[in-house]
Amino acid sequence: MSLLLASGCQMYVPGGNPFTDGPDSATTWESTTEVPKTVTLIDTRSGEHLFVMEIPVGQKLVIDFVTDGGDNAVITPDLMMWEVFPSSVKYGPLSNALTVPDRWSRKIIVDLRDSGEYAQPATDRPLSVDDINDQPDWWSSEGGALTGSDPIDGYDP
């Protein structure tokens, strides 16, 4: 039972969930520094690119198709729900939608971009020195005791 609960909390992982994965479940593509990905959805009847997403490094794209959720029973009978999440997120709502052709008239192509891209740093991360109040005493012109390093052992704390 605990194995089921532990794996059930990881819905959006590349390769899928081993207990609920199937042809009608959500699919996840993760973009890493070594393997950045671009996902393209193509209408095979016309060759039109319906959806192109260059997944940012450190993020993942989750796509789920809802059969008969589209707005036109002939041209676009299905609905594609999608979302881009940080790589650490295992589950969440898919808040974007696009009507798409049925499963026999669409194709997904995953392209690998050149490696060497880097994830954008978090905007809310703490910086080592944010403002004058965050600086240590020895940083100011008045000076202060230098703490936290031992020049004898040669390593920083």
Description:
The protein has one helix and seven strands. The protein has a domain at 16-112. The protein starts with a helix and ends in a 45-residue tail after the last strand. Mean pLDDT is 80; it is low at 1-9. The strands form two sheets. Strands 1-4-5-6 form a four-stranded antiparallel sheet, with no helix packed on it. The longest helix is centred in the first third of the chain and has 7 residues, at 2-8. The protein has one helix spanning 2-8; strands at residues 27-31, 37-43, 49-54, 59-66, 78-86, 96-100, 106-112. It is elongated. With 157 residues, it is mainly beta.
Write the layout of secondary structure elements.
Blueprint: H1 2-8, E1 27-31, E2 37-43, E3 49-54, E4 59-66, E5 78-86, E6 96-100, E7 106-112
Antiparallel strand pairs: 1-4, 2-3, 2-7, 4-5, 5-6
Summarize the structure.
This protein is mainly beta. It is built from one helix and seven strands; from the N terminus they run H-E-E-E-E-E-E-E. A four-stranded antiparallel sheet has the order 1-4-5-6, with no helix packed on it.
